[in-house]
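Lecture 7 notes: from sequence to structure.

We start with a single chain of 410 residues. Read the sequence below before looking at the structure.
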Amino acid sequence: MNTTDKSETELILINISGQDRPGVTSALTEILGKYDASILDIGQADIHHTLALGILFKTESHKSGDIMKELLFKAAEKNVQIRFSPLKLEDYDEWVGMQGKNRYIITILARSITARQIAAVSKIVAEQGLNIDAIQRLTGRVPLKDGEEVRTRSCIEFSVRGTPRDREQMQRDFMRLTNELEFDLSMQEDTIYRRCRRLICFDMDSTLIETEVIDELAMRAGVGDKVKAITERAMRGEIDFIESFTERVALLKGLDESVMKEIAENLPIAEGVDRLMKVLKRTGFKIAILSGGFTYFGNYLKQKYGIDYVYANELEVEDGKLTGRYVGEVVDGRRKAELLKLLAQVENVNIAQTIAVGDGANDLPMLTTAGLGIAYHAKPKVKANAKQSISTIGLDGVLYFLGFKDSFIN
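Now the structure, written as tokens:
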């Protein structure tokens, strides 16, 4: 008699719950091994010291009774609950057939994640015909009482499977939710490229630093209001960047070169930058600044954080004074996208392995070119056109969109 015939094969799903303690998984799988059962699927989670373990196994019919009896006794000995659910072979075959379905990672990020946010996101997932396979927390446990000096971060990650009925509508619904419920969200295809990003390019002003350097220079030159007004119009995409840049630089004529050193030494670094750079360098990322700002300040950050590349604009200096002109080609939105592609070639990485982070309209070309484009505390037009955005926490939120967990990087 052929004991592997389907008519004599049973599939059984066991669900174990109770207080987590060492040895539970070992003891239960040891019984399955004793009877030569084949484990087809297994998953385990620990939520506040409470175990949730599921095992789907295949065995010969004449062994199933003994296996379940021994598992039941062992569960009682370990003081955990166990539940058995038989599974039809055709149901299993259908489940296996879904392995070719598209998979996505949905990341939810905020200072503190609420039930309303999770409910709203999961509702859209269900409406689009997707199934949630797993949910995990990437951040450490959030204290009940926040210290005044501590800025909390909270992040959970959904692994979902299927093909959205309308991907564009799904993205619009997500963006609406992030505005209404004040959280950040990223939806990425779960591909090999998502798991091995290698090159990350940052805008500088209002991204790595919490200011626009040209505004700082303008204030020292006594033309702050004029330059700031032009800057804001350019960042909103209302006027051409090169034209606005030329106008603003001209207003700096006569400013002493020493002012740049004083500004550089007092740059307000954005929240989370120190942590982000430390992790990126430790994990082998190549890091670039692609900025419409100035090389003097980009090079200062390069030295501070060990950044690999800086491409920005060079101010012309004569006799220790700014001339009101710049040297070379302006790094505008088009140039940023070109530099991103060039650096990907230099580093021999697929464009899908690249990341771009920025806040202004002139960052949109590189955000849409990169494998992962992230709008950071961005202007409304930029956020509306970006697939991912971070507006609720610091720049180290980028790490969670890459799948890093606090337990690995802290």
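The CA atoms of residues 61 and 109 lie 47 Å apart. Keep this in mind for problem set 3.
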